[in-house]
Structures are given as structure tokens and as C-alpha cells.
Group 1 truncated hemoglobin (Actinomycetospora endophytica), 143 residues
Amino acid sequence: MSGESLYERLGGTYAIAGAVDVLVDRLFVNAEVNANEGVHAHHGDPANAPGYKFLVTAWSIEAAGGPKCYPGLSMVEAHDTLAITNDQFDSVAYEIRGTLKYLGVPTAEQDEFMEIIEHYRPEVIEQTPVAQEGTLEPAVAQA
Ligand code: HEM
């Protein structure tokens, strides 16, 4: 091991910003991702691209162990009104993997970054409340 952070091994801020530039352009026209109406309301408007690229770049820099610089929402807050399915998460994950491959990022670094992405799946996808006996308040107060 070189001892370098993933951030450094990915090539630092310029390389990460370059990758996010490619990624977001693909996500904004990805049919599966845009099949989600709430996502399309955002990704369907090209005016959202520059700010979104900035936020996803900063998030990725921090997540890869670079400087703390992400000023945006938590992953739960950013996605909780969007009802994102597991399949839609997979579509985004394919685009991330595809972008890293396209840019020639070595497999070890691809795998390491994808593990970070996968770690956030539960925060991003729709939270389905699981009714467990005895854990939910009765809908109507007992007489
Ligand atoms: C681990 C995976 C993901 C990461 C790291 C990520 C990252 C981000 C970031 C940094 C933001 C900006 C938050 C802010 O406004 O402060 C954001 C917003 C957003 N993300 Fe994600 N995201 C992920 C997965 C997804 C998926 C799977 C979808 C769609 C299928 C998605 C769709 C969106 C949309 C539409 C917004 C904008 C919401 C709005 O402001 O209206 N994201 N995401």
C-alpha cells in the first residue's frame, strides 16, 4: 500500500471534478434514472447541472478522504422525498462504475469508491416502514 488516501489515488480535486462532470451529464439523460418523476423534476433541467456537479464533487472529495468541503444536505435529507427504488439506485451505481471505467481509474480504486457508494444505499433509497407487532401506535385511540 502506498499509504495514500483514496482521494489522492483518484487524482485529487481536479480528477474528481472531471469524473463528476462526465457522470452528471450521463445521469441527467439516463432514462431509467429519469423514470422517477421527482428525480426528473431536478435532472430534467440543465440549469441544475453546475450546482449539482459542485455538490457531488465536494461530497465525493470528502467521502474519499480528502479535505472537508461538502456544504450540502445529508444523504437522507437530500433524497427522502424522492422515493428512490433499489433498481434506480443500481442504475446510478452502474453509471458511477461506468464513468470510473471510462476514465481508466484502476480497478482497486473503482472497487473502493463503489464500496463507499454502496454503504449509502440505505440512506438514499425509499424507507419502507416495517410494521412490527407492538411497535406502532394504534391509528385510533383505544376507548
Ligand atoms: C450514494 C449515492 C448517491 C450520492 C453520493 C448522491 C449525492 C447527492 C448529493 C451530494 C446531492 C445534493 C444534496 C444537496 O442539495 O445539498 C444529491 C441530490 C440529489 N440526488 Fe443524489 N446521490 C446518490 C444517489 C442518488 C440516486 C440513486 C438518485 C436517483 C435515482 C439521486 C438523485 C438525486 C436528486 C434528484 C437530487 C436533487 C434533489 C433536489 O434538490 O431536488 N441520488 N445527491
About this structure: The chain has one domain: 6-124. The chain has a mean pLDDT of 92. Residues 7 and 15 are 9 Å apart (CA to CA).
